[in-house]
Amino acid sequence: RKEVEQDPGPFNVPEGATVAFNCTYSNSASQSFFWYRQDCRKEPKLLMSVYSSGNEDGRFTAQLNRASQYISLLIRDSKLSDSATYLCVVNMRGYSSASKIIFGSGTRLSIRP
Amino acid sequence: DTGVSQNPRHKITKRGQNVTFRCDPISEHNRLYWYRQTLGQGPEFLTYFQNEAQLEKSRLLSDRFSAERPKGSFSTLEIQRTEQGDSAMYLCASSREADEQYFGPGTRLTVT
């Protein structure tokens, strides 16, 4: 089992739709969580951190479920410009307390007019 | 531009040659990370510096790979005796004490 797993997609949804992705992680000691977006042949860009209480930034909502070990990203009123790959990132602290930062393989989203 | 910069952006080299990449982080960031990314995969963690100290190295970082950050500012990643399997995008990221990382545009390496 991969340490961080994402549905690769692609998710193909119409403009204006609501779409949600999940990301599961294997290490219950994981301490911090993020969503990044990556456009084709570009670097990942931080979309949002994921806090225990959940957080919202405009049309984007991120949630953390520690009991079930997953994080989610919800995009409301999707725009054509939301088409990208969404990467889930989990920072798992090892026994040495060194960071172990794991990226998921990403979920591809395509918004159609 | 005060973001993370990387040079060169593209590198084509023959198998067996050595290559060196440079990363200049955001100036007030004390943490610097190197990743490798291949098509269809997320970035894979290679190594991490806090200031000039290299705190962690992935098992992916074989003996042919070495990274330095001599003054706690820019960093270099060297690959010796390149192999075709080293072809990938090499990404650098930096952050402050928190873990929110900001990535540079990457160096795309092609080994022929």
Question: What is the topology?
Answer:
The complex is a heterodimer of chains A (113) and B (112).
Chain A: E1 4-6, E2 11-14, E3 19-25, E4 30-38, E5 45-50, E6 55-57, E7 60-65, E8 70-75, E9 84-93, E10 99-103, E11 107-112
Parallel strand pairs in A: 2-11
Antiparallel strand pairs in A: 1-3, 3-8, 4-5, 4-9, 6-7, 7-8, 9-10, 9-11
Chain B: E1 5-7, E2 10-13, E3 19-24, E4 31-37, E5 44-50, E6 53-57, E7 65-68, E8 75-79, E9 88-95, E10 102-103, E11 107-111
Parallel strand pairs in B: 2-11
Antiparallel strand pairs in B: 1-3, 3-8, 4-5, 4-9, 5-6, 7-8, 9-10, 9-11
Provide a compact summary of the structure.
Helix content of chain A is 0%, strand content 58%. With 113 residues, chain A is mostly beta strands.
Structural class of chain B: mainly beta
Radius of gyration of chain A over all CA atoms, rounded: 14 Å
Low-confidence stretches of chain A: none
> Can you count the beta strands of chain B?
11
What distance lies between the first and last C-alpha atoms of chain A, to the nearest angstrom? 36 Å
Q: Would you give an account of this structure?
A:
The complex is a heterodimer of chains A (113) and B (112). By secondary structure, chain A is mostly beta strands. In chain A, 0% of the residues lie in helices and 58% in strands. In chain A, strand 9 and strand 10 form a beta hairpin. The chains are: A mainly beta (113), B mainly beta (112). Chains A and B meet through strand 5 and strand 10 of A and strand 5 and strand 10 of B.
